[in-house]
UniProtKB/TrEMBL annotation:
GO molecular function: alpha-L-rhamnosidase activity
Gene3D superfamilies assigned: 1.50.10.10, Exo-inulinase, domain 1 (2.60.120.560), Galactose-binding domain-like (2.60.120.260), Immunoglobulins (2.60.40.10), Maltose phosphorylase, domain 3 (2.60.420.10)
Stretches assigned to the Alpha-L-rhamnosidase six-hairpin glycosidase domain: 611-951
Alpha-L-rhamnosidase C-terminal domain segment(s): 953-1026
Enzyme Commission number: 3.2.1.40
Full protein name: alpha-L-rhamnosidase
A single BP term in Gene Ontology: carbohydrate metabolic process
Domain Alpha-L-rhamnosidase concanavalin-like: start-end pairs: 510-604
Lineage per the UniProt record: Bacteria, Bacillati, Actinomycetota, Actinomycetes, Kitasatosporales
Xref: InterPro entries: 6-hairpin_glycosidase_sf (IPR008928), 6hp_glycosidase-like_sf (IPR012341), Alpha_rhamnosid (IPR016007), Bac_rhamnosid6H (IPR035396), Bac_rhamnosid_C (IPR035398), Bac_rhamnosid_N (IPR013737), FN3_sf (IPR036116), Ig-like_fold (IPR013783)
Keyword presence, Metal-binding: no
Keyword terms, alphabetized: Hydrolase
Pfam families: Bac_rhamnosid (PF05592), Bac_rhamnosid6H (PF17389), Bac_rhamnosid_C (PF17390), Bac_rhamnosid_N (PF08531), Ig_Rha78A_N (PF25788)
């Protein structure tokens, strides 16, 4: 076929080109990317027999590399084998292929990939810059008298003295959690607290109730090595200690016990009589680094270190004036940038790029992502300005359990702009000391607590030419971290959708609550009207209290509050930039009139992964369940795979994604996203091969892991490979996978039983009073890890290891049966999860014993009227285990329950995302345990894997769906179902309906793949395709009868199978047990 032929006219064409799993990626970091594409043909059973790839610096050129004609059916993970790609360069590429008849396709449409800056040398000349530190007055804070008018609201309230920062200084805590009130004197050195004295306040006439009642005044006289404390005029403590000689005052609470205090007035007088601090908060401005100003008082709660001093400054702005070279025309312009913290760029007053929360969260001690922006259209001839807003983000803001400064304390920017002119010359602009800096309008910006935007502080036109920056300071340089920079390899976080408020209520006068109708992750977008100096407060919640007010107790220490202060009277649109919330409801206060519904929106954020899967049924509840699973995936795939987007956690829990990845791989294309995250998993691996429980791992938080969690080192690369067929993720992770498996192997005894490794995560997380033997969990995962490692080793050509892992897996399964399965089929401890693992993971090899264990499993479920009791580990295998023993009927019964506890119960209770717990809301309307109760948590959404396989009928026999299984299993009350999946080869789909025993099944199979189609019937002869006997249909080949279905092999194309009600149907019998 001529290469000039029209693609649309050709019978065999190539389309949907990807590099590293992405379409036209900008700023990749690989010198040897992998290519992929799809093919299209109107003919059935079309396959690819050969391909040719051309890569060039111009469209249609092969001046960089040509593969030549390669005889192969590969379309996925095809490796580039040309010379190493150069930094900051766009490469164009195209593909043509030959079908099974030897006919060549036309060349595909040209795609491109563009490299970012690939190594530290490419960043030469670019410094890490920030706003200069404020002049320190720390030397004045040596000896002083501090007087604080306060109220102890609950539990405990701490006050800092002589604190140079939030990790070093004294902390006096008033505590009413014991039988009598206590003053507990601490000193903190490098973040570690030590109690140096405890004073019982009861002998001084104080009681717990009295200390909680009303306002009190505490005075600290700090002189030399002595600190004297007076409470309500009574001297209560004198301490002599020389650890700290100077430092600020501040306030401190922790979320663990509901600590909270209110400060009404704080006055500090130096030994020379000078006033160091005098504030009653009446102005609304907060001179401390934390806390919230409410009614002219500072409220401190949750996990908060609120320190006075130069750190209590707005987030910085940076700008650089530059001019393009006179007489030249710009051909292209790129900005390469990254930050410690978060950044957003502007050129000539216009925002650069469409991503948010850049550079994303990684293990900043090991790698920091950089981004590439095409800014060609933003430049003007002549004068230009490149500006940047910075915020603390994950770098210095609150992370995990509300702890800040986990990586550093100062946001900074690094950037290089390359301007290429039509004459081939190049101009560079880089971050250095010539940049200017100033305070910006973001008075506060924290991912957990929210954003405070004071429009009065925004310099008008600051990122445009002509702005007078004479009063701005030269930027300061920080220690270079350029060696840690790597181009971002996955899709960035973007605005992906906008939701309109559906309802407004006023549960209390002046408090307006808006319902978006959907729990989501992102920020609000509000049209607000106010007068100069007026402040509007915006709060968020996932659910409401019974009285219609926001329920926020489950947010723990996260403040989740935004504030906007007007610079002038009028109407503005406010959309936060440097925070992120999980919410359905928006509360607005501080407005004269409530905004109209049309003025209140929710802007959905998430890692912008391509949607790939759909699943629909005739049951509305199940359709809502699929939607809930999808929304939880979207909300928790935000730079990393998190556990919950709303409270003070938002961590990359390894167990959650380990269990949910197979479902996620149906919903979206996870290749780049999970491959990127696995780099941080590898970087976090301990010397012994084990992993922390969360990745990235904040200091001192969840460093220990356990069964089902650290196994992510194997399960996620395996799952991604099975779903997409690209061995690259296996090659990248194989050494770390082997190292982890050896850790598990060493943890097991010579009897091959694995006791559970660590005790940080014991048992089946959040099960409902149905514990599982720890050794069952450990040994089950040991066996499955060995099975997966055998497949991985074989895929990578490591035959010796594959044989070893395979034999070991079989031996572990035998050991499991011997230790944990009785002769009558009882699995030790008789838990739902124990049976789900034993049967779902094929841990029992004897068919007779499988049947007995299946009977025990069914009997166990009957004790709860077939309601689940499983936790995170057991739930994904619960329904698959029932299907494997031929009890799809019970699987559907459990899936379709609408009473507590069940998936359907959440739906009928109004959930629009998955809950963390089965009892997040009880039938009486009360909320579950407040310490851990997220309403957007995808772990229990792992049931989606079973739903896609059994209702949608889609699963992979070979990695990447090169050979697929289309086997819908109609059941329950369902009369219709459909599933579709955009595989790496193209669209795979099924659509079925049943009526009085008749079955109609329509399937579509992508080019260059084969599918085994299971048509429910009692007899092969009852099946038709396209109205004729299936055996006679073109491209259809009968394979076998299996589990109440006729199995046909088909190549690519669309097919319509049918079974009449008289000739046969699925009948009422379940499937027979299937064993490995």
């Amino acid at each position: 076929m001529s290469s000039a032929a029209s693609v649309s006219d050709a019978p065999f064409t190539v389309k949907a080109l990807t590099a590293n799993g992405r379409v036209n990626p900008l700023g990749i970091g690989d010198e040897d990317p992998v290519f992929g594409w799809q093919s299209a043909s109107a003919r059935r059973a079309t396959s690819q027999k050969a391909y040719e790839i051309q890569v060039g610096r111009r469209p249609g050129s092969a001046d960089v590399w040509s593969s030549g004609k390669v005889v192969s059916g590969r379309q996925v993970g095809v490796r580039y084998e040309g010379p190493g790609l150069e930094a900051g360069t766009r490469y164009f590429w195209r593909v043509r292929a030959w079908d099974g008849k030897g006919a060549a396709s036309p060349w595909s449409a040209t795609a491109y990939l563009e490299t970012g800056l690939l190594n530290s040398g490419d960043w030469d000349g670019a410094q890490w810059i920030t706003r200069p530190a404020a002049p320190s007055d720390l030397d004045k804070w040596t000896d002083y008298t501090a007087t604080v008018d306060f109220k102890l609201d609950s539990a405990a309230f701490g006050m800092f003295l002589r604190a140079s920062d939030a990790s070093n200084g004294y902390m006096w805590q008033f505590n009413v959690t014991g039988p009598t009130p206590m003053l507990r004197l601490h000193k903190q050195v490098k973040g570690t607290y030590t109690v140096v004295q405890q004073v019982d306040l009861a002998p001084y006439g104080f009681t717990n109730a009295g200390l909680l009642d009303g306002r009190h005044t505490v005075r600290y006289d700090v002189a030399g090595t002595t600190i004297r404390t007076t409470l309500d005029g009574k001297p209560v403590s004198t301490l002599t200690d020389s650890t700290f000689t100077k430092g600020y005052i501040g306030f401190r609470t922790h979320a663990c016990c509901g600590e909270r205090g209110t400060v009404y007035d704080a006055v500090v007088t130096g030994a020379d009589g000078s006033t160091l601090l005098d504030t009653d908060f009446a102005s609304g401005r907060n001179p401390f680094t934390g806390g919230d100003i409410t009614d002219s008082a500072l409220v401190v709660s949750g996990t908060t270190d609120a320190l006075y001093g130069p750190t209590a400054r707005p987030q910085p702005l940076l700008r650089k004036d530059f001019a393009t070279e006179p007489g030249k025309k710009v051909a292209s312009a790129r900005v390469y940038a990254s930050a410690l913290g978060l950044y957003e760029l502007e050129i000539n007053g216009k925002r650069v790029g469409d991503q948010v929360l850049a550079p994303g969260w990684t293990n900043y001690h090991k790698r920091i992502q950089s981004q590439t922006y095409d800014v060609t259209k933003l430049l003007d001839g002549g004068d230009n300005v490149l500006g940047a807003s910075l915020a603390e983000g994950w770098w210095a803001g609150k992370v995990g359990l509300g702890w800040s400064r986990q990586y550093g304390d100062t946001p900074a920017l690094v950037a290089k702009m390359r301007i290429t002119y039509t004459d081939g010359s190049v101009q560079w602009i880089a971050t250095d000391g010539s940049w200017k800096s100033a305070d910006g309008p973001y008075a506060k910006a924290d991912l957990q607590d929210g954003e405070t935007y004071d429009a009065r502080l925004e310099p008008s036109g600051w990122s445009r030419p002509g702005f007078d920056d004479a009063k701005w300071e030269p930027a300061a340089s920080l220690t270079s971290r350029t060696a840690l920079l790597v181009p971002q390899s996955d899709e960035p976080v973007r605005r992906t959708q906008v939701l309109q408020a559906k309802k407004m209520t006023e549960p209390t006068a002046g408090i307006y609550v808006y319902d978006l109708g959907q729990n989501m992750v992102g920020v609000s977008r509000l049209n607000l009207t106010g007068s100069a100096g007026q402040t509007v407060k915006i709060r968020y919640a996932e659910v409401l209290n019974k009285n219609g007010t926001l329920y926020t107790d489950n947010f723990r220490s996260a403040k989740v509050t935004d504030r906007y202060t007007f610079a002038e009277t009028g109407t503005v649109t406010y959309e936060p930039t440097f925070t992120q919330h999980g919410f359905r409801y928006i509360e607005i206060t501080g407005v004269t009139e409530p905004p109209a519904l049309s003025d209140v929106k929710g802007v959905v954020w998430g890692s912008d992964l391509p949607a790939t899967g759909t699943l629909k049924t005739s049951d509305g509840m199940l359709n809502r369940l699929v939607s809930n699973i999808s929304w939880s995936q979207r909300g928790n795939f935000l730079s990393i795979p998190t556990d919950t987007p709303a409270r003070d956690e938002r961590l990359g829990w390894t167990g959650d994604i380990s269990l949910f990845a197979p479902t996620a791989n149906y919903l979206v294309d996870t290749r780049a996203f999970l491959s990127h995250w696995m780099a941080d998993v590898r970087n976090s691996q301990y010397a012994n091969g084990d992993l922390p429980a969360v990745v990235p791992t904040p200091q001192g938080q969840f460093g220990e892991s356990g069964v089902g969690w650290s196994d992510v080192m194997i399960t996620v690369p395996y799952s991604v490979w099975r779903s997409y067929g690209d061995t690259r993720i296996l090659r990248e992770n194989y050494p770390a996978m082997q190292k982890f498996f050896q850790f598990v192997r060493d943890s097991a005894g010579p009897d091959l039983l694995e006791p559970g490794r660590t005790t940080f995560f014991t048992n089946d997380w959040l099960h409902l009073d149905d514990p599982t033997e720890q050794g069952i969990l450990g040994t089950a995962y040991y066996a499955e890890n060995a099975r997966m490692m055998a497949e991985v080793a074989e895929a990578l050509g490591d035959e010796t290891a594959a044989s070893d892992y395979g034999k070991l897996s079989a031996d572990i399964r035998d050991a499991f049966t011997e230790a944990y399965v009785a002769s009558d089929g009882t699995v030790k401890r008789d838990s739902q999860t124990g049976y789900a693992l034993a049967l779902g993971m094929d841990l029992i090899s004897d068919p007779a014993l499988v049947e007995k264990a299946g009977s025990k499993f069914v009997a166990k479920l009957a004790l709860t009227d077939h309601h689940l009791r499983t936790g995170f580990i057991g739930t994904p295998l619960l329904l698959p285990a029932l299907s494997k023993i031929g009890r799809d009927d019970l699987a559907y019964k459990m899936l379709l329950h609408k009473d507590y506890p069940s998936w359907g119960y959440e739906v009928v209770s109004g959930a629009t995302t998955m809950w963390e717990r089965w009892n997040s809301i009880m039938p009486d309307g009360s909320f579950g345990p407040v310490d851990m109760n997220s309403f957007n948590h995808y772990a229990y959404g792992a049931v989606g894997d079973w739903m896609f396989q059994n209702i949608g009928g889609l699963s992979a026999i070979e990695p990447g769906y090169k050979r697929s299984r289309i086997a819908p299993a109609p059941g329950g009350n369902l009369t219709e179902g459909s599933g579709s999946l955009e595989t790496v080869y193209g669209r795979l789909s099924s659509q079925w309906s049943t009526d009085n025993g008749a079955v109609d099944l329509k399937v579509t199979v992508p080019v260059n793949t084969v599918a085994e189609v299971h048509v429910p019937t009692r007899t092969r002869s009852a099946v038709t395709e396209g109205g004729r006997p299936a055996d006679a249909a073109k491209g259809v080949r009968f394979l076998r009868m299996e589990d109440g279905a006729a199995v046909f092999e088909v190549g690519s194309g669309s097919y319509s199978f049918g079974v009449g009600p008289v000739l046969g149907g699925p009948g009422e019998t379940g499937r027979t047990a299937v064993t490995r």
